[in-house]
Amino acid sequence: MATKKIGIMTTGGDCSGLNTVIQRVIDGCISRKWNIIGIKDGTDGLYNTPASTVDLTHGAFQFANSHLAGSILSNGNAGNTNFESSARAGKLVAFNKRLKKSLSDLNLDALVLIGGNGSLSLAHMYREIYNGLSLVCIPKTIDMDVPKTERTIGFDTAVQQLVSYCDQLLLTARSHHRWFVVQTMGRKCGQLALHAGVAIAADAILIPEIKFDADNLVKHIKQSKRDYGIILVSEGITIRGHSGKPADMISRKLNAAGIANRTAFPEYIQRAGDTLATDRILAAGFAETALTAIENNETYVMTSFENGEFKTVSLNDFFAGGRPDKDPNIIGAMTSNAYVEPDNILLHIAADMGIYIGEKRK
Ligand code: F6P
Predict the structure, then answer these.
(1) Residue of 185, 195, 329 with the most ligand 1 atoms within 8 Å of its CB, for mutation
(2) Distance CA 265, CA 250 (A)
(3) pLDDT tens digit string along 322-351?
(4) Which of 64, 119, 156, 209 is the most exposed place for a label (fewest CB within 10 A)?
(5) In terms of Cα–Cα distance, which of 228, 154, 173, 167 is closest to 199?
(6) How far apart are CA 175 and CA 180, in angstroms?
(7) Residues 257 and 290 in one domain
(8) 230 and 309 part of one domain
(9) In this structure, is residue 45 part of a structural domain?
(10) Which domain holds residue 174?
């Protein structure tokens, strides 16, 4: 087998599991006698001249660290990457040219891009940057909002982080006869809140995909036999006429109804935590699938897990498989998003468990 030179980078928000994917890709390259370099800070590192890279071929990254959260390669300066500032300044053409030049200077055969729906949508939109090499993407995100895959790196660990957090909160809630309104991450997708909510048997789960009625929520809480519990609120929900953090809005409604409560914000802890075994195995499967795709000269593809199978799907299919929305960070760009669909089994399970999940699909 001819030797190859592979690049690997992490872009977008971090999550637990990135290091495991990186390690598994390195392992696979070493066993194939391929060279591999890491590109630091995602597209920020690629924008530098010369690109910021680290040689990973000879065990620069030790297995002992691969279950730790974050990315050994770093993800760039969230919210203010060179990509974003170039977009704001209307200089994306020049930016993209520089990425293309860096890739050609690096003389890569393939690039493994580990990113969320934003990064993958941008790779699809600006595909000419990757002409001449094999571009293989690996989906990661705690939001689980990537179309055409049922699983994404980091999601299971994020759910566990939230579950552990809520399990602890419930103890203090019980001591003080009060409710906690916990705001989860997830952007406009309710998967994270829904999974954690079912796992802890929350009293209510509010997600962006389902309309809720604040009065019915209050009624539900009052009818419960307890004076404490957890209401999980996804960061993407809105209430007409209210602004501010969703958890604060719900808390005010509860206060007005005389229900003692506090808010809690687990925030970036959801992106941390030692990588769970299921995420590690997913990482190993995605790494192997990505390397096989490179061997088969595939390009513009994403690894996917669907119906119990690892496979690749084209970035075209990924993009067409979701619903487009404006990219929150890049003016003029669209991302393709997956959401909680009405037939999601967890919605039915939650309803059967007596959890308030809102009224009807928006
Ligand atoms: O997409 C992952 C995510 O953690 C979202 O759930 C959250 O809204 C966002 O990233 C926060 O991003 P930032 O790191 O820019 O604050």
Answers:
(1) 185
(2) 13
(3) 999 998 777 778 999 999 999 999 999 999
(4) 64
(5) 167
(6) 12
(7) no
(8) no
(9) yes
(10) 159-270+342-361
